[in-house]
Each structure stands twice: as C-alpha cells, then as structure tokens.
Amino acid sequence: MGLLRRIRTAGRVAEPAPPRPDEQVPQKARQLAGSAQVRCVDAGSCNGCEIEIAAAFNPVYDAERYGARLVASPRHADVALVTGPVTRNMAEPLRRTVAAMGEPRLVVAVGDCAIDCGEFAGGHGVEGAVADVVPVDLTVPGCPPEPAAIVAALRRVTGR
Ligand code: SF4
After folding, report:
1. What is the pTM of this model?
2. What one GO molecular function would you report for this record (predicted)?
3. Is the pLDDT assigned to residue 64 strictly greater than 70?
4. Ligand 1: distance of its center to the CA of 96 in Å?
5. Could you tell me the CATH number of the domain that includes residue 123?
6. Domain limits at 70?
C-alpha cells in the first residue's frame, strides 16, 4: 500500500520536454511515421555510453514519450544505437545485426568511440569506427554523450 500511495502522490517526474531539435529529420526517418523501434549494440565500448543510453530511457529523460522504444531483436528494430569502437570480434556481428533489420533502417553512432574510435584508436583489437563497418546515418558526439543528446538524436529520427 505504501508503494501505491507513493506512486499516486509522486506526480510527474520527467523533465519538461525540451524544444524539438531544429536539425533536419533524415530522409529515411520520414518513413518511420513518428515512432522508432531501437536496438542497442555494444560493439566494444567501456559501457559508459550504455549507462547514458539507459538514462535516456529512464523516467526523467523518457525517450519513449517521443516515440522511441527499445526492442530485444534487430528483426523488430528500425534504428540501431551502436556504441564503442568496433572490435574485431564484433565487426561481423554488427554487420549481421544491421542486415537483420528491415528497411528503412537507420544506424546511429553514439559516443566518440563509435564516431572515430576515441580513446581506443589504434588499439590492437579495434577494427575501426562504426562507419568503417556499417553505413551510419546520425552521430551523437561526446564521451559519453549526455542522455539529452541521445534523446535529441532519437527525436530527429521520430520527428517528434
Ligand atoms: S565514448 Fe567514452 S564513454 Fe563511450 S565507449 Fe568511448 S570511452 Fe566509453
């Protein structure tokens, strides 16, 4: 009963919605009709970016209110959020994951490592940045990027 009372009295915990990002919605994203099923792929990150992605979907940043939803399978996904430099062991799984997604599909490189290998550039186990392995549609810079930046990128995809 205590929990139910807290739920009833807590009210709204999400941050007020920031203004819609004014960058253009990518052409492919226009076909997604305002919602995006999102599959996360850790291609070799330190997990810092994953923590921020998790925060982007928590009740405070609440990416779901803009039409983004996490899914467990690439076959259900329109958008791949890819983090980390792509390690040699993850290059082929990443290619297969993106190939398993239906069209139209978008790949978002999240974090400096995903964009240009960041801290891990030149590492012996690193195959390259995400764009070296699969086509990238959007990037979210930062080490790690803030949840608000991840939400802004998802809003560019959903157009909401
Ligand atoms: S960008 Fe920073 S937080 Fe993200 S995987 Fe690389 S080192 Fe970790």
Report:
1. 0.87
2. 4 iron, 4 sulfur cluster binding
3. yes
4. 23
5. 3.40.50.12280
6. 27-158
